[in-house]
Every structure is written in structure tokens, then in C-alpha cells.
Amino acid sequence: MKRKLSLFICILMLLSLITACGGSQDSSATADEDVIKIGVFEPLTGMNGGGGLQELGGIEYANKIYPEVLGKKIELFVHDNKSDQGEATTVVTRLVEQDKVVAIIGSYGSAVSIAAGDIIRNAQIPTMAASATNPMVTQGNDFYFRACFLDPFQGEVMANYAIEQGAKTAAVIMQNGDDYSVGLGNFFINAFKELTGDDNSIVDISEFQLNEADFNAILTNIKAKNPDVIFAPSAATTAPLIIKQARDLGVESLIMGGDTWENPAVIDVAGADAEGIVLSTFFDENDPATEEARRFVEGYKEELAGSEPIIPAVAALGYDAYILLRDAIERAGSTDGVAIRDALRETKDFEGVTGIINFTEEGDADKNIAVIKTVENGQFVYIDTVEVK
Amino acid sequence: MIINKKNKLILNILLFLAFATIIILLDTNKIGDPYIKRVLNLSAIYAIVSVSMNLVNGFTGLFSLGQAGFMAIGAYTVAIFTVPLADRAKIFYITPQNPILAQIELPFVIALILGGLLAALVAILIGMPVLRLKSDYLAIATLGFSEIIRIVFTNTKSITNGALGIKSIPQMPTMWVFFGVALLAIFIIWLLINSSYGRAFKAIREDEVAAEAMGINLFKHKVMSFSIGAFFAGIGGGLLATLLATVNPNQFYFTFTYNFLLIIVLGGMGSLSGTIIASFVVTVGLELLRFFDSPLTLFGVNIPLFRPGLRMVIFSLLLMVLVLFFRNGLLGQKELSWKVICDWFNRKKRKKPAEGGRA
């Protein structure tokens, strides 16, 4: 009995193997000349699964709106990288070698994008990161581009905003071990010091650990130093805890965060304490920056059909990443990696959902706008669009 | 076929030649592509680490979960010492690298061995107090230790670049780096297990009191097994760093150890060949199952279940089935040897038992 069963399982596994191979052959057979293949690698499961899915939503919607380039259909090859660097490198190699894609979009989370970078450069496949904000992603890599602004820019925007509000001193809270949080926090510190011209303007720098839920020690310390603003770039799960505990302790300072805070969960958990927090983000659905954005907001709202209360900024970036690549392929007139890269570099004043996009030498989107939002009556409210020269 | 010493040698040589041919063919791009190579290289690394973990868990009976920590030590040693000097300033852009370290660049092989040695050294230091614990308590202590390593690496920013990680680690041009080291590591562990030390390990696994009564120095042997296991885990970590070309502390989160635990339980606690087979089955299998993640259209109907994530569901189901029917893993404590294969072969084809071996 046991023998038969184990044999049965073996056959099952073999069958799945054969169908797997069969499946991939099918797709490669149809994909000869009549489609253009774009690979997508995103974390669909694992730690960043939520963000990855939101981003993918934007990419797929873009594919629906602009299904063709050079008169051919665009086919997306979506693979999951499990928020894991090892997995990311295998997936990208697979996209390059087996799926033979001409360009790649991805990924949410800078660490996985950095891991994939070398493979992309060696294979000469132009790649567009949608929301990976770490400078190292595109650094020294000709073929890696990104549609979002960088941590240094975001740090500068927030420092500028803080100073405009008359802040003289600031405290920074960062998550130890999180490259996004540490990177953004440090850029804020540098920008703030430079703007105030005073090295002592940052009165406190604290770090907390992953999964930490009690910030009382850090906040008591900060309260004693009484800074004008607290800048706490962190994940949407920890942000409301920091906000709530700060207000409970009677900290009156202005609390500011980065783009990850634009998440309904922050308001849900922090409740009334969330009122008045300030954050920067890529995009605002109530103030479309371009004509493309207006169309996107209308169309994608309908597409979401209420499954998300607001359009996630990463979906807008995913959409932008796709249309940027499509535009470059169109202008390059071929599917050659180098030609597409050159076309991407020549991108001039491209009208994306998240603003007018040009690329810098490194391949970063040279965006000049960031949106500042606050919370009023339990809603994210647009305050200002900041333009930094 | 009858298995005698001469036959066995011939078969072993044939097997090695077949293995070498495949690697050479892959290496010269005659067969396969970089994707297949990468998956195989990853399997080889997993095999090294799993075998080293099996030495501690399966053969010595110490329930240790510190493998991710030891791998982190090996990986970071390779990362810190092999990144070209010119690239370092760019990588350490928030906190500059320690001025002494910033001037040292070592060849890969030396950095790799250094990583293994450092891991072993840390294992000895940590093992001395921790190995006095038994079963679950040891597991908790080693798990905690691997987290400590990760946190230390996150905070020593001038050495490890903290949370930002290190990239641009030079990559190896040939698969022999991975498979050669894997062969060597497995061979050394195989020799060790079949030596008097290995028998002492197994005695400790079976019954500590009895082993001690037979004159085995428990502490010495436990520390030895633990540090040798750590050495090879460090080597595995170093290879992983060069394969991925980047390291990041979050990669070595304690859940990473569970991958290897899964492999040794699946292959059989106390079976080298089982562990090696399981490393390849799990790594390659997960890639093959990727098919379930992409949407499937059968007869024009889009089957709704096929979506990202289904792969992991199927994988877990297969694991459950395997564990239900092979309670001791694929091979239990047995080893796959020519004798086992022949016995199985002979049972199937009893009619012509004399043929087969000549070919």
C-alpha cells in the first residue's frame, strides 16, 4: 500500500514536471515575433507581499490601457521573488534566460532590486524599478532605471518643509536594520543640518528594532529635549504606535514620516492621534499632476472598485514604470537592450502619473515634485506640492 | 550484480566522471543556461549548509538552530574582504568603512576560508557555555545566538554597512567553485562521520550517559561537532555571498535556518546522501513548481486558483504527504550506497541478476 502510494506521488511529481515544461514551451512558442515580452519581478508573498501586489496592480492596469507597442502585443511575465534576495536573483535569471524578456520591471523593496542588479547589467536588459528608493539600486548600473524619487530627495523635501514651518530643532527615529528607514533618516539629518547651518539642530537620534512595539523609552527621551519636529520614517505597522505613544506622553512636536505612512492602517490604528501628522508621497489622487494622471485616477478607481480606499502611490509608480518602458521601446524602434537603454536615457519631460519625468546620469527619475499630505478628520489631506530645484 | 570493492571503485569513478562531464558541459554552455546553473549552484550551497547542519543535528543529536548566524559570518567575511577597493566608498555612503578594513582586499579563496574559520571560532566560544544545555534549551540558545549575530551586523555600520548591506561582491566564473567546495565539504564530513570521532558523535546521539560511561568526552566531542558544522556553514555563507553578489543582514533572519532544517528532516536526520538529495529536490522543486504561480488557461477558461502564492501551497502539501509516508525522511538514517541500489535493482529484475554491472 505504502509502496503504491509513494509510486503514485512520484508519478504525480513527474507529471507536474512535464506539464511545467510543457507550459513554458507553449508560451515560448507563441512568443516568437508577434509579442513583446516584459518581465515583472515583485514580492507577491513574504514580508513585502502587500506592497508588491499593489505595485503589480498598477503595472497590470497599465498593460490593460496600453497593450501594444511597435504594433505588437505586450505580454507580461510576472514572477514572485518572495521578498528574498536569493529568490530574486533566480527569478531575474529566469526572466532573462528562459522567458527571454526584452525589459524588466521591479521590484518593490530595494534589497531584492540590488541583488538582481548585477545579473541585469551583465545580461544588458533595461530594467525599471518602480518604487525602490535606495541609491544603490541604480548606482554604477547602466541598465537599471527607476521611476520614483530617491531617499536623499525625500529627506530634503521633508527637511525643507520642517524649516518652512519654523522648526529649529528635530529628533529622528529610525528602524534599525531597515535600509529604507535608516537611509531616509540619515538624508533628513544631513539636509536639516545643512539648512539650519547648525550641527546641534538634530537633538536626538534613536533607533528601534524590528517588531518593537513599545517606544516609551525613546519618546520620553525625546520629550525631555523638546524638538520642534520628530521625523520617524518607518513601516506603516509601526508608525501608528509611535504616533499614539508620543501623543499619550504629551509630546506636542510635529510628527513627520515618509511615503510608507500613506496607508489607511496608520489612521485606523492611531485614531484621533493621527491628526496633524505630515508625510511626503509620490502622488496625490486629488491633485493629478498631469493629464495622464487624471485619466489614471479615474480609470484605476473604477478598476479597484473600492478594494482599496485610496490609490496606493506604488500602483501609480508601477503604472509609470510600465509606460516609461513602453515609450522607450517605441522610440528605440527595436527590442535590443542597448537601444532601449539609450532611448530611456533620452527620455525628455515624459508625462507620467507621478509628474514630469526625466532621467539623471545614474538612471534615477529626476523628479522635481513631492506631495506633502497631512491627516484631517481621519482622512489624508493634500497640503502642498513641493518643488525642489 | 555483486558488489565488491573493485566494482564499487569503478562505479564511483564512473559516477564522478559523469558528474564532472555534466558540470563541464554546463560550464562551457554546451547545455543548460545561466538560470539552470544558478539553481544548481544554489542547491550545491544548500547541500553544504544542510550537511553541516546534519552533522550537528542528525549525527551528534544536538538540536541546534544557529546555522543562519554562522552563514552570516562567512558571508560577511567574503563580502567585506573581496569587494574591490574602488567600489567601497560608493557602498559605504552613509557611514564610511573602517579605515583599516577599507585598505584590505583578499583573494576569494582566502576570504572564504577565513570566513569559515571565524564562524568556527565563534562556534567554539559560544559552544562552550551553550552546549551544556540539552534539546529544546539548546535550540533556543542557538536561535538567539544567530539573531544576536544579525543584530550585531546591523549595528556595526563601519564594518558591515549596517542595514544597507554590501553589494558588488565579485562573482565566480565557474560552477566548480560551488560544486568543488560542496564535494570537498561532503567528503570531509563523510570521512569524519566514519572515523572514531564520528562513531563517538553517534554514540552521543543515541545515549549521552552510555556514551560517557564508555569513556567518550562529551563536551569535547560536542564542541568539535558544533564548530566543524559552523565552519562549513560559514563556507556555505561565503559561497552564497559570491553567488548573490550582495549581502544584507535581513537575509540571515532566523527563519532562514528553517530552510535547512526542512532539508535535513526531509532527507533524513543522520543521512548524508538523503540530505544532499533533499537539498536538490527542495531547491529545484520550488523552481519547477513556479508553474503554479502563473495564470493557467485550460480550454479557454482561466482557472482562478492559479495565482502567485499557489506554488507555496502545493509545496507545503507535498511536504505534508512526504512526512506522512516517510516519517524518518526520505532515507531515515540509511545511506544511499551502491549496495542499496543494487539490492533494489535485483529485487526488481530477479530474472537476470548477473547483467547490468558490465556496461
What does this entry show, briefly?
With 389 residues, chain A is of the alpha/beta class.
Apparent shape of chain A = globular
Run of helices and strands of chain B: HHHHHHHHHHHHHEEHH
Assembly state of the chains shown: heterodimer
Mean pLDDT of chain A: 85
CATH architecture of the largest domain in chain B: Orthogonal Bundle
Give a short account of the largest sheet of chain B.
Answer: 2 strands, antiparallel
Average pLDDT value of chain B?
87
Query: Biggest sheet of chain A, strands in spatial order?
Result: 8-7-9-10-11-14-15
Distance between the termini of chain B: 11 Å
Radius of gyration of chain B: 22 Å
Give the terminus-to-terminus CA distance of chain A. Answer: 75 Å
Radius of gyration of chain A: 22 Å
What percent of residues of chain B adopt helix (DSSP H or I)? 55-70%
- Unreliable sequence segments of chain A: 17-31
Total individual domains of chain B = 2
Shape of chain B: globular
Which class of secondary structure composition applies to the elements of chain A? alpha/beta
Low-confidence stretches of chain B: 353-359
Largest sheet of chain A: 7 strands, mixed
In terms of topology, how is this protein built?
The complex is a heterodimer of chains A (389) and B (359).
Chain A: H1 2-30, E1 35-42, H2 49-65, E2 68-69, E3 72-80, H3 85-97, E4 103-105, H4 110-123, E5 127-129, E6 144-146, H5 151-164, E7 170-175, H6 179-196, E8 202-208, H7 216-225, E9 229-231, H8 239-248, E10 254-257, H9 264-270, E11 278-281, H10 291-304, H11 313-332, H12 337-345, E12 350-352, E13 355-357, E14 369-376, E15 379-387
Parallel strand pairs in A: 1-3, 1-4, 4-5, 5-6, 7-8, 7-9, 9-10, 10-11
Antiparallel strand pairs in A: 2-3, 11-14, 12-13, 14-15
Chain B: H1 5-27, H2 34-59, H3 67-82, H4 85-91, H5 108-130, H6 135-155, H7 157-160, H8 176-193, H9 196-206, H10 208-213, H11 218-244, H12 255-267, H13 272-288, E1 296-298, E2 301-303, H14 310-325, H15 338-348
Antiparallel strand pairs in B: 1-2
